[in-house]
Amino acid sequence: MTTPLESPPHCRESDDASEPRRRILLATTGLYAGGGIASVSRCIARALEGERAQARLACFDTVSLEDQPGGPRPSEQGGHLQAGGSQLRFAFQLWRSLRRYRPDLVLFDHAGLARVMQLPVPGLSGRPYVIFAHGGELGAFTAGRRRAAFEGAERILTNSEFTAGTVRAHFPTIAERVHPVPLCIDPELIEEWERDPAEAPARREPAILIVGRLWSTERGKGHDALIAAMPAIRERVPDTELWIVGRGDDAPRLEGEARD
pTM for the complete prediction? Predict the structure, then answer.
C-alpha cells in the first residue's frame, strides 16, 4: 500500500519571467527521527525554506524513508511524502515525485539513499543529484552499485574537511566534485537551551566530552580511541576526565574499558 500523492502544490513563481523556476527534491532518511543525520537534514530543510522565502527557490519537496505518513511538514509549500520505514515505498515515492514535480535537482542526505538512482527504472537515470556524505558510511561504498551512486553524483557535500579528504581518497576521479559544508548546531537545540539557561559551574575541570549513540554496530564514532588515549592524556593533564553521554547496547563494554 502506498501513500497517495497530494494535489499539485503551489510553488512561488519568479517575478522575473527570464529567471528559471527552480525546484529541489530533498530525499531524506528522516527529518523527525533521532540522531545526527536527522539534525543535519532539518538544518538543510530550513536552509531550503529560507531560499524559498527569499524567492531564490520556487519550492522544495521531500521524500522521507523513516518518517511516518501524516507527520510534520517542513514547508507549507511543496509535496511531502513519508515512507514509514519501507525502502520499497521510498523508492516508489521518489520515482513518482520525480515524474510529477520534475525537480531540477535531488539532494540525498545519506549516500545509501542515492543507490535508488542506479535502478534500471525509466525516469531515474540521468537525473542530476547531490549526496551529503557524513563519513561513517564511506567504507561500504567502494564497489558495485554503491560506488556508482557516488560516482554518478554531480556534487558530494561533506560535514568537514576531514570527511572531504576521505571521500577524495576513495573516489579520486570525482575529487573536484567534493565540497565540505561545515555543520551548524540545530536551531531547535539552541531555542531549548535559551528557554532553560543553566548557571555555569563554579569550577571548570579539564574534561573531554563525547556525545553519541553507544551501539555495538557503530563502534567507529571514537569512544574506544578516546578511552585508549586517556592514560597518555592524564600524564600531561592529570585531572582530565572523559565524559561519555549516550545510550546503547555497547555501554557495558565501554564502561568495562574505562574501568580497566
Answer: 0.76
